[in-house]
Amino acid sequence: MRPYPPCDTNRRLTDSARFCVLANEKQQRLKARLPRGLADRGPAEIAATRDMLEKIRVVYERYGFDPVETPAMEYTDALGKFLPDQDRPNEGVFSFQDDDEQWISLRYDLTAPLARYVAENYDALPKPYRSYRAGYVYRNEKPGPGRFRQFMQFDADTVGSSSPAADAEICMMAADTMEALGIKRGQYVVKVNNRKVLDGVMESIGLGGDENAGKRLTVLRAIDKYDRLGHDGVQQLLGAGRKDESGDVTKGAGLDNPSIGTVMMYVTAQSRDTNRSTVANITSNIALGPTGQDGINELEQFADLIESAGYGDRVRIEPSVVRGLEYYTGLVYEVELTFETNDEKGRPVRFGSVAGGGRYDGLVGRFRPEKVPATGFSIGVSRLQAALTLIGKLDTKPAAGPVVVTVFDKDRLADYQGMVKRLRDAGIRAELYLGNPKNMGAQFKYADRRNSPCVIIQGGDEKAKGEVQIKDLVLGAEIATLSKERDDYLKKQAEAQFAVAEADLVKAVQDLLARRGVSF
Description:
- This protein is of the alpha+beta class.
- It is built from 18 helices and 20 strands.
- A hairpin with a 5-residue loop joins strand 3 (95-97) and strand 4 (103-106).
């Protein structure tokens, strides 16, 4: 066989090498993918969150709370997230070891970092110390529907006051926050209970002390399911156990009938009248020891404060509320949305609890020799935002994009940039098109995708006349839906693009934005 000439051989080797390089590049190219339990957010959702947070901030500051910000990472021991009797962090937090072998974790909530901040700056802070903070928290847990590894909370806390008035203010502020966000009275309720009363009930049925901690936890978890399972379901969980609709059996607490009766009497003690009536129902039916009676006294003071401030219809003492089984030490509360709505597929949705909190008198004391009482609550921003979106209280439509100054002649970029600056100086959001200027259609398409209200055009003819063309994209989109045979078609088409003197550019754009209801 006749051999290839050297040039052909070189070419063949080059082609082969090029194929190998391309194949290797394809194999090495990373796949763009998002880890489970996390979510990207676009401009519309971010704008809706910003609007929501601002409304919450206004209420918090009206109550005298000041902002504070703590880092996303803390020493693991400050978060209280070491496993018992071990020197490694709880699996529920994202952790790493620093170069000095100290464990550091992403914050699990916003409360533990606040406790560290207050303890570290205790002498410099006014007491009581009232603060609020918003930010992402991180959970190293198995993600699922509506369960994320990163989500936002918005907290408010009062540190340094043991008065039930501090708890009452937090609950009143929670109610005012819901209404500031557009949730009407009757569509939400702030439910309140006291952990001391719960402990007193446990003692009354013989479940006090460390030796009964496991059984006590089972009882408390059963009570916590009252809203979902109702009277019969909780009663079964307090006894032998409960079989659900699928046939699965949940083992019960194994209480005897008298003890079950006492717990159910407590759980169903809420009065339809006043909060004071609910407290009276508890004390008249259950013999509480000193711990429980201390909680009753706090509930009575709380009820009087709430009633005198006119919040008795929105803030209700509810004996079935159980929060933070190892976290809270006194009054506890949660905000529940009571309305039912439908999701985008028409399925019924009930959001339930969107915020919660309570008194945590032991958390700051981990760092200080003295006792430091504290109380606060946290809004689950993502969950509440989803609810507000479904009932139409948050605008999730894309916000108006910038006015786009197109490039008709690439040799006149300085002129076009000057137009952009004039618009920006007037407070108008504007940008210069920075893509390939050869195709005007591509520039208009870009402006459409940016949701721009209008574009600015100046070619050679317009420059010679001292004019610019303004293309109204909002009206243009409206025209696209009209029949060409309609009388107003040609009229609107003429209005959709018009010429103005270059000197009047800013005024003309301001007038167009006003007509379209766009503000920056």
